[in-house]
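Sorry, explain these tokens?

***
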Amino acid sequence: MPTVHKKKPNINLVIKSEPEVSFSGQLLAWAFTYGRYIIIITQIIVLSVFFLRFRLDRDHTDLKESVTQKQALIESVADLETEIKRVQQRLSNIHQISVNQDGLIKIIRFLQNSTPTDTTYTNLSITSESISFTATSINLRSFSYFLRRLQVDNKLTEVTIDDIVRRNDGRIEFKIQAKVNLKAFT
């Protein structure tokens, strides 16, 4: 006998309805399709921020340790820096004294070359800024020559004669004060 095949009825287990027709159906369809992507992207962002927080905490800790180490280094070098500044100040003072001594030597040499042989000093005071002395000349000509020599070179400025006395033996005793122009001595 011939076999007869019976046609099976087409049974569809998934019921398709038209939910896309209504607004709530469209919203639900959109939420199922794009909502998944939004949730996945949000989770990726949250995890990224979570791991970034660990990295930033580690960087913060490293920087804090670095600052602490550098502070310790600076504190250990502070004594050395203080000593270096003290030595620099001493060197500056030594240089200043040396320059002043050179200036004083030049002033003394100037006086030595300018003073006539018959003029003698009884009192001499020299600083880097001024000079004052008391001297005696044999005669008025020696005194006049000496005074001109002091005023000619502009090495001494504001030359003033404080006291001048002529003794019975003809000698001239005088006191002179002046300001020193150190730049002219170089």
In short: The mean pLDDT is 84.
